[in-house]
Amino acid sequence: MGLSKREKEISIKFRNSYYIAPPGSATEILSHPKNKYAGAIDLAIFQEHRYAFFYWLKWTRESERSEPPCMISLDWHQDLCFPDEVEKDWLSKLDQSNDGEVAAFSWAKLAGNNDGHILCAAYLNLIGDIYVHCRQEPFFDSWKDEELIDIYGNKHIIKKFKTFDSLEQHMLTSKETQVYFDIDLDFFVLDSPLNNENKKKFSYMTKKQIHDILSINRPLIDWILERLSGFTIATEPKHCGGILKSNRFLSIISKLYFEPEIFAPNCDWKHKRS
Asked: Which of 66, 148, 200, 229 has the fewest CB atoms nearer than 10 Å to its CB?
């Protein structure tokens, strides 16, 4: 039996549709880490990586920039599936001024396996060029540069990097001036049964390895913080091997960058308190 029209298009009534966020997400308003004249920025944390779409849209919508920031993502997966024609139609009809509609769209219409949010955001010109350091190689030639033409005719370059060093070398010589920094905590997983059927256990980067690449003294991190326009973190506990593992990685990031800690009263950048 086919679904009724009502079952296909269930309307969600929000108490205030202009002040709502995706389920389970939280934000921290922070001073800019480097530029005291740049104003505040937001840190957003959520379990499902696709909810980053909501925050990129909100931040770009509320900014006064003529062009959106580029996006730098650290992730085990590439998450770079192109929107199909149905998704493009949905995106073209999305009321970007309505937080409730955008939150519901992020939850219910973006791909549930969290692999389409980046290029859906690029299709609406919410982010500029895209730079992803990842471990996944889903198909032959998957490391080649690609491009996407957005709904307004703008071209977005998509670059993928096998190593942090290669990402760093490229970005330090780029002309990018604004950055959305995006981390999926499963980036710190080296291998797992979810990604390799021959693996029985998860294997992880060491704390020292994480510190080596994410330290504020690392040239790329310093470069990012100079240009930071928003910071998104997806916790993805299933792909991290459990919520305690995911929380451990989040704790490492919190101790690296923030004091007293993320979401604590008077949280601020650690280096600004020293």
From this structure: 66
